[in-house]
Amino acid sequence: MTLAQDATTQIPAFCDGIQYFGDPWPEFEQLGQAPAVDAATGKLRDPGSRVAAYQTLLYADALRYLTLQMTASKASGHPGGFASQAEAYAALVYLGHKNIPTEVGHHAPGFYAAMFLDGSLAGMGIHTVTDLRARFREREGLLGHLSGYIPGLLAPAGPLGQGQHFAMAGALLYPDRLFPVTIGDGGLGEPYVMSSMIHFHTAFPQRTNFLPVLVWNGYSQEHHSMVSAMSNTQMVDYWRGNGFEEVVLVDAKDFDDADQPGSYVDSTQFSLEGRIRFARTVLTEMERAIRSAMSGQLTVFILKQLKGAGVHAKGSKSHNLYGHHTLDNPDIVAALRARALAPAAWALVRQNCERAAGGPAATVAVTESIRPLPELGSLTVTEFPLGDKQVSTTAIGAMVVQVGQKDPDFLVANADGNEASGIANINQGLKVIHPTVDPLYNQQPQGQVYEPLSEDACAGLTAGLALLGGRSLWCSYESFAINGLPIWQTVTQAMAELRRPTPSLIALYTAGALEQGRNGWTHQRPEIEAYLAAMIRNGNVFPLFPPDANCAQAAYEWALGTFNKGIPIIASKTPLPIRTSLQQARQAVEQGYTLLQQLPGSKTVVFAVVGDMILLPVFEAAEQLSAQGIGSRIVSVVNPRRLYRPEDVAWSTCAQPDGKFLTDAEFADGFAGDVLIGVTGGASLMLEPLMLRYTGPRDFLTWKRGETTATPAELMTFNGLTVEAFVQRARQLLG
């Protein structure tokens, strides 16, 4: 074994920066002379052969080595989890599959190692191991968790319980491809993982081309995993009991010839012969699992191997590096020396990785090209007459049906049911996906409406579809959408980094707090608006608040024409007056606001209103002020993002940047008056741009908290959102 600087000139250029090289493995002259991956097919010629197993092991150890050296170069990051699955990941790649998302953000360094070895990271200027080390955990580099920025990687990975959504979305959009997704046994404790896959399989039984790969290593981040005490039989029964027809389990313990204690063992401690037998079984069983998944069987592959296999520590102690885990740390040095490969082995691994699946992931992964979309053309939009009462959500629903009819891959999801949100027309036009045919409930197996009773499952699948290039719509009650927001936020943030345009992630949040009097505070939770308002500053998030059904249609129409954005539309399911023409509505969405009413008087009170139902007492307050000789302007804030100053928002750093903001002159013209009162039936943070830009006397009357009431008016009274309060505060501000 030699230090890199003492090695010979035969070292491949990409290996510059490798700390240690090892001697060639035994039998390398026989088993390592030619790549086992066929250049024409992009997969192993004979997965059951000794040469295939041998070269797969070389790849697995190369992944382990790079993962550990990369993380130790910054004394930071997570090497242990990926190390325990290295043989499974290597098998997938060498069997020709590179569309691999993960549920485990902590496996990021291993995924970066894989992208480096097949050349994908060259797209971001990472050509050598020196570059790899320098760019790890640095801005515009290889972040600690997967993001949307890294070439070749399908999806971001942060909070646990998300990755399977990306695999299932891929299975829907690309039925001829396999989408394996690695899942940690720590993450398996999240309720979303299994429940979302089972509902998906019930809705789409023919789409089994996603393959969960359970990394069963006995530990989570800081302790034993909650499934670590299960026997193999219990684990198999668990998956079978949840509807998986084929459960393929490979237990490293069955190949242990090093007499390791416990149920979880490290295969890198086996003899070479034991390692080859283990790798051969992983390959042949993985191939069996792939065939099963691609032929209509719901399948899972489980690799049982000790966390930290082949790196500096075992169990949860391998999970995270700390400040003392530098490249000089004895444990790190010993692990790197043990995994060190000869230069010829590195060259062989690089050749196999470049050939696998037809080329680098950065060129062959489905997310690396723009997915063609059916043209929508001009959608029919109904212009309702001023003063008419219409349900905004129903008006949007009619447009949603048209989108589904023109785009067969379009999907709508709703956990609480579309009928409850005033959009039964979506179910009638697109049908609820269900194995039981029932016309009364608009159910049939072939539909485009996905209704699991889980906000995470709804948000997850629709977010995954948008990220992977499809159109989708997530519908939710405003109060419950918070339960699906983590993955919506994750994907929206990733879209800000993507190197390609993809349809915006559109949501429709209905049944606002003010509508939910009789349901009580459990249904009156507009705090999601504060979360979304904070996200506006990301630069690609545009919450829309149409005041009526005409503007609601304009909002959805605008959202459909955008890319790489997160666009939640907050609209009422209650019939409310039409206050805008269609032309005015379209202008309002684009410029951020619209003037709904102006009454003359000695002084002018500007009511800047976010929302629709809350306009009812505002209009009445304007009439009372008019009777007292005080004028008013009622301005509907439809697109708050447009009202910020450019420097408030990180718009210029976003993919598909949108730099449209009101100038100071435009803002002054739109909100000119003697005093300003901001009003919303939701979170006050949506009025932040008015707080920042309006310099005259002002106040903001907003939501406080929920309570059980019989009517929306009572709920407004409880929150101080009354005609009397508006009039009194206006007079006080006017002096």
Give your account of this protein's structure.
The protein is 36% helix and 12% strand. The N terminus is likely disordered. Helix 2 packs across helix 4. The longest helix is centred in the first third of the chain and has 23 residues. Helix 10 links the parallel strand 5 and strand 6. The chain has a five-stranded parallel β-sheet with strand order 11-8-12-13-14, sandwiched between helices. The chain has a five-stranded mixed β-sheet with strand order 16-18-17-19-20. A four-stranded parallel β-sheet has the order 3-4-6-5, with helices on both faces. It contains 25 helices and 20 strands. It starts with a strand and ends with a helix. The chain is an alpha/beta fold and 735 residues long.
The neighbouring-strand order within the major sheet is 11-8-12-13-14
What distance separates the N and C termini?
A: 85 Å
Could you list the spans in which at least 5 consecutive residues all have pLDDT below 50? 1-8
Question: Could you estimate the helical fraction of the residues in percent?
Answer: 25-40%
| Major sheet description | 5 strands, parallel
The fraction of residues in strands falls at: 5-15%
Question: Helix/strand-derived class?
Answer: alpha/beta
Q: What radius of gyration results from the CA coordinates?
A: 29 Å
